[in-house]
Amino acid sequence: MGAWKHIQPCCRIARRRWHDAARMPIDPVAPTATPPVAPTLREALGFWGKLGFISFGGPAGQIALMHAELVERRRWLSEGRFLHALNYCMLLPGPEAQQLATYTGWLMHGTRGGIAAGLLFILPALLLMIGLGWAYMVFGGHPLARDLLYGVQPAVVALVAQAGWRLGSRTLKTRLHRAIALGSLLAVALETPFPLVLLAAAVLGIGLDRAPTTETHASVAPAALHPRAWIDDDTPPPAQAAHRLRALWVFGGGGLVLGVVAYALLLASDHVLLSSMAWFFTKAALLTFGGAYAVLPYVMQAAVEVHGWVTTPQMITALALGESTPGPLIMIVSFVGFLGGWQQPMLGTPLASGVAAALVASFFTFLPSFVFILAGAPWVEATRGLPRLAAPLRAISAAVVGVIVQLGLVLALHVLWPDAGLRGRLAGLEWPALLIGTGAALALLRWRLGVIPVLAGSALLGLLVQSLAR
């Protein structure tokens, strides 16, 4: 997968972007040459809890922060063990940063540590998204909120463009991959189901990609050049890795049973909204190869066009909030769920319905990730080998570029031509929104400013433009 060669430059960028709390060490621990003391479960829980509140910067920034803390400062893990875990997580669908937190928590303290690390990584973001969803529904119609969102929406289009550019520059190296990207763009525009697009890309990758396939293992300097870690390269697999079949049955089978029972209870409750969200977000969780941006078009199409849970402007707001808050970007599903539940109340009050829908969306989105790690990590640790999936995954990544570009075009149409009847005409073009979006794109791609400053500046520009227009 070449995971580390993409993450390593992000480590440097992330360190420059974080100021004060986000860049300062989580705890005042100075690296020394002495072997580290094994952390207790309580110490690890404190670390994961604090990480959940400062994990800004998207998956690259979050992984960079975990590397800086776990490998460089605390030396709880060696570089090789960290990369070994990262490589496995990069092969999986779902949020890789949250999966990496779950994996390293499991590696250090077994099942309890893994579940706790994964939950603490997403819990602050879940609570924050529910609170922001409530504020949006209560105050979103206020003129001040509308003016701020006027500037935020074109900045979100720029964020999508940035994601497409970054992934495309890494992925579209051959004619085959460029053709796959173009084909996926056209296929999604013609409303081809997203799973079929990914499946077709994988088949093309297997059949036509002739690039050499190598397993991804970063070169690690000799141990003599670095202080030893608590779990070092030569540390034997943990005791929990010995029970591979048991883990597969307990967590693989148990996770499946838990998901089926929860879904059956929702079906029996006759709350169609909750059961449809459960089924949809389970499918979405299994299709998120390439990160959250890869599945956003799928989520947007279903949430806006198929189910009518949210509107396109609300989806744009969800993306802006996901980019500017800690936690996985895919956590925007909880915001989408909250808004859908609030606008289609089925539990007496909009607030209760919104909270229930947000919890359902989050549960079924993250359940597969916990299952993949807890059931698969013992096998990965025991064998220290990764499957040779480079060709189909390269093709899927190329398809994701096309899907992201199509998402950007759809969002741009809604932002730049809010009047659907004038779409594509100069008379209906929102020139201020175009200028704000262009400025945001330059700030992100050319000047490499952080997401939060760009969103904040765009919001203030939107407020200024709307104030002058009145």
Relevant terms:
single chain; 470 residues; mainly alpha
Question: Could you characterize the architecture of this molecule?
Answer:
By secondary structure, the chain is an all-alpha fold. The protein has one domain (42-210, 242-469). Helices cover 71% and strands 0% of the residues. It is built from 17 helices and no strands. The chain has helices spanning 3-17, 41-54, 58-73, 79-91, 96-139, 143-171, 175-189, 194-208, 244-268, 272-285, 292-306, 312-324, 332-343, 350-383, 390-416, 431-445, 451-469. Helix 4 (79-91) crosses helix 5, helix 6 (143-171) crosses helix 16 (431-445) and helix 13 (332-343) packs antiparallel against helix 14. The chain is globular, with a radius of gyration of 22 Å. The relative contact order is 0.16. InterPro entries: Chr_Tranpt_l_chain (IPR014047), Chromate_transpt (IPR003370). This is Chromate transporter. Keywords: Cell membrane, Membrane, Transmembrane, Transmembrane helix.
Low-confidence stretches: 1-24, 214-224
Strand fraction band?
under 5%
Strand tally, please? 0
- How would you classify the helix and strand content by structural class? mainly alpha
Largest sheet: none
Q: What average pLDDT do the residues reach?
A: 83
SSE succession: HHHHHHHHHHHHHHHHH
Number of H/I helices: 17
Helix content: over 70%
